[in-house]
Amino acid sequence: MNNNIDVLIIGAGPAGVAAGIGAKKEGANNVVVLERDWDLGGILQQCIHPGFGLRTFKEELTGPEYMHRFIKQAHEIGVEFRTNTMVFQIDKDSNTVWTMNKERGIEALNPKAIVLTMGCRERPLGAIRIPGTRPSGIYTAGTAQRFVNMEGYMPGKRAVILGSGDIGLIMARRMIWEGAEVEGVYEVMSWPGGLRRNIAQCLDDYGIPFHLKTTVTKIHGQDRLEGVTVAEVDDHMTPIKGTERFIECDTLLLAIGLIPENELSRMAGLEIHKVTGGPVVNDLLQTTNPAVFAAGNVVIVYDLVDNVSDEGLIAGSNAAKFALGRLNNNAKRIPVKGGENVRLFSPQFVTGESDTTIFMRVTHPIEQACRVFAEPGLYSQRLRYARPGEMNEVKIKAEQIRNLQDLNEIVIDIQPV
User: Fold this and answer.
1) Rounded to whole angstroms, how far apart are CA atoms 273 and 333?
2) Helix (H) or strand (E) holding 168
3) What are the respective helix, strand and coil percentages of the chain, to the nearest 5?
4) Mean of the pLDDT values across residues 113-124?
5) pTM (whole model) above 0.85
6) pLDDT tens figures, 341-397
7) Are residues 181 and 207 in contact, defined by beta-carbon separation less than 8 angstroms?
8) In Å, what is the CA distance from 416 to each residue of 11, 158, 195, 377, 394?
């Protein structure tokens, strides 16, 4: 049993590395980050395209370049990293973390505070139950991205992309760059799932067809994928008879959504939000277990890595405060609720201990002037539009919370003006 760790962080992606920096800067002595992969950086290792760091560093970087700056800073201030280390159990009663490593064997760690930064995973084909065989040639977009960018393998020569998540849009362009044909991107909803800039830069600039309210209804092929049937869908997402057509292809890439990676969160006995799929957290990024904090895509799936890193810094700092006995354990617990056009949001509670940003996604797009607000009278900002693929923010000052003695809940929403 190792009891000498102040803050233990699980996952060395953008949130985890930033959490290590935040914990050290707050004064924690022994800060350890565990990573199951052989190297640091998480998903950004394979994101070799530019577009990262515009807000944080005021310049355009690739994913590895963005992560290198954080990793360098973490090493300089003394964060300890352990790679090739798998966490396979968290005991909810004692907060003991069980790890497995080839050199260290099986080890039980009992830190003063834990930060969960495991990120998210992609929805597989089984999640949408498309009938047909299960031949080779069907990949999640992130798996294909790793094959191409890190392993040097091409998934195929003629691709169809199902879903319009950002990784799928980026992989459409990447496949074209590597000489493959992309027959089209098909999205079951009536609006895109990814950022508009990725649609413009990855699809429009390369003439890749983009079909809304259309989905794959059947898989064809035995050993290798030979094609898919696509069809338009109605307002209930039911395929419309007579709109089916066969598309010949040898590769199907899936960009049908991301899910917070929360097996360990459930092991730890944390309350999981039924909509986000991540732990319920307050504005300190503290979960329902006071010693456990969570940050980044393990809480709610973000569109910008800058927000993930910012959350990591906050979670690491507050975890260090908890470990050092400096966190207020009697803070307020004011619930946040989403209005009629807000589906996903985080955090779910505010304490008034610090300024906070509530991140949210709208349920349906508003393609006109609208207003994002927090009631009662805490925030209001005019927007040109609001889309599910792009997060919106509500910023609330701690002083506002403290000044409202009878504040029972905060309601956030976005409505046309």
Assistant:
1) 16
2) helix 166-177
3) 25, 35, 40
4) 97
5) yes
6) 998 999 999 999 999 999 999 999 999 999 999 999 999 999 999 999 999 999 999
7) no
8) 40, 42, 21, 17, 16
Domain 1-123+257-329 CATH (choose: 3.40.190.10, 3.40.1700.10, 3.50.50.60, 2.60.40.1080): 3.50.50.60
Residue whose C-alpha is closest to residue 43's, from 195, 258, 187, 198: 258
- Answer yes or no: are the C-beta atoms of 334 and 81 closer than 8 Å: no
d(CA 60, CA 371): 30
Task: Sort strands 292-294 and 113-116 into parallel, antiparallel or unpaired.
Answer: parallel
Is the backbone of residue 164 left (phi > 0), alpha (psi -120 to 50) or beta? alpha
> Is the pLDDT reported for residue 1 higher than 70?
no
Residues 6+ apart with CB under 8 A from 377: none
Residue 360 CB contacts under 8 Å (≥ 6 apart), including other chains: 338, 342, 344, 345, 372, 391, 392, 393, 394, 412, 414
Residue 97 to residues 51, 112, 288, Cα–Cα distance (Å):
36, 11, 17
Identify the pLDDT of residue 207: 97
Structure-token pair, residue 266: 């459930």
Interatomic CA distance for residues 44 and 66, integer angstroms: 8
135 preceded by a cis bond (ω within 30 of 0): no
CATH topology match: 131-256 vs 332-417: no
β-strand partners of 216: 230
Report the relative pairing of strands 158-162 and 251-254 from DSSP bridges.
parallel
Residue 51 neighbours by CB under 8 Å, 6+ apart: 60, 197
Give the Cα separation of 411 and 2 in Å (integer).
Answer: 43
